[in-house]
Amino acid sequence: MKTPVSRAREMFRSLRLTLVLSIVVPLMVFSGVAIYLGLGAVEQNLNERLREDLELVARAVSGPLSQAMSDGDEIVMGESLKSIFRIGRVFGASVFDEAGQHIASLGVADSDVTRSDSAERAIASGELDGAFRRVDGVSVFSQFTPLVAADGRIQGLLQVTRKRSDFHELVASSRIWAVSIWSVVSLMVILVVVLGHYGAVGRHVSRLLNIMGRMAPGHWQVDDMPAGPRELRQIHEGLQDMGARMTVAEKEIRESVEREQELSEQLKYQEKVAMIGRVAGGVAHELGAPLNVIQGRANILRRGDMAENDRRHLKDIEHQVERMTLIIQQLLDCFRHVPDSRRQTDLVATVRDLTSRIGEEPRCQGVEIRTDIPFDQAAILAEPTRLEMACLNIIRNACQAAQSRVTVSVLGHEGFWELRVDDDGPGITPSLRERIFEPFFSTRAAGEGTGLGLAVVGSVLKEHGGRVDIGSNPQGGCRMSTFWPVFGRSEHSKENHHEH
User: Membrane-spanning regions, if any (predicted)?
Assistant: First the structure.
């Protein structure tokens, strides 16, 4: 059970009360004092200077002007107006009768004040009045002073105008005072906020932020001891509890994601194979007959007599028909899935057979094909036709990229046989190494490749549980390595478990 002292201590360590006492209250007090003193000083300074300057000028000449108006002495009236300009900085001065009609003026001032509210108020009340207005396109402050006759009757008005810009110095002076007061007050507030916040809250919040910054996948556990106000200690304890639960949840999620990824990849691959296989079968069925007809008609035409130019066009037609037929066949090969027909197959025998006859193909003519196969046998579980098709496409691709030489090797690894094909061509940039196995993607110019050869390789390796790696060889060309799972115990499977 908590004692009264402990309860009081907990209350005063409350985050809300701490913020109110250390930051909010001092900030409100000093801000209020600063606003009051600053605005009071600016307003008082401005009003005092404006009233004193204009009233002084107006009152100094109102007596002589009133007497001159009573006597009808225009000379004295003119001299009185001139004296206004000698007393202070005045933009203009005018004298009007009680009806607002212009009598005399000097400088820039109104010639008609019959519609001026300030003039009407000055005549009606007998008190000074004024307002900002524009005279001849210039913004001025207009001061109206009643001219009182000897019998107390208001017989006219004196208008004294002053440019608005003349007040700028006064406003600047007041602003300096206000800024000075605000600066001092702001400095005091900043000191209070910085010191109060750091001492009461800031250092503990920074500590919590540092702890949260360290919390990341694999590092959710919080071992630091709670400190600071009650609310912050509660947050710290919540972080500890959350870290413990996140550690458990992360492990479960990782295991679940790995399982889902495996299942998703298998499902996507099966769906893709099934869907595109159906499309490919439909395409082959729909296009096979028309292509056969075109090829047959071309054969008939070739038997007849025709000009050399027509024969060249006919040859182009036959070439394109053959190319379309090849594309259809490769598309079917790419997505034909035959897992039930796999059996024990010798990778070494397949590779040696291919390398012995592939030099007859047009794509490989002029390219030296070397072999480095130190094994007599490399048993894998495969569908022989699909295996041969994959190996053939890899070597063909290397022949097309090579300048003069292709090297075909078979190497042993723990659990895998590696078929490695090196060429002395320009190689494949890293950014394209993932895309070359996409259907219809080709680095060659349009018309020089279907983009399906390596897609067939990728499809065959997936259905056989293998993988493919793309890299560079010491000569700078491309190195394509395919890995096939070992089947059974080959007599040389334990030998040469290293890369050549």
Answer: 17-39, 176-198
Query: Rounded to 10 degrees, what is the CA torsion of 326, 330, 331, 336?
Result: 140
- What count of other Cβ atoms lies within 10 Å of the Cβ of residue 262? 10
In whole angstroms, give the CA distance from residue 500 to residue 481: 12
Yes or no: say if 250 and 220 are a contact pair by the CB < 8 Å rule: yes
Laid out side by side, the sheet with 129-135 consists of: 102-107, 92-97, 154-163, 138-148, 129-135
Q: At what angle do helices 308-334 and 453-463 cross, to 10 degrees?
A: 20
Distance CA 146, CA 150 (A): 13
From 425, 416, 418, select the one nearest 397 (Cα to Cα).
425
On whether the pTM is more than 0.70, the answer is no
Q: What is the mean pLDDT of each run of 10 residues along the chain (500 residues)?
A: 52 55 70 68 65 73 79 78 72 80 77 75 77 74 79 80 63 65 71 66 75 79 78 82 85 87 76 68 72 80 78 80 71 59 89 87 84 90 86 88 90 91 88 72 57 75 86 88 81 41
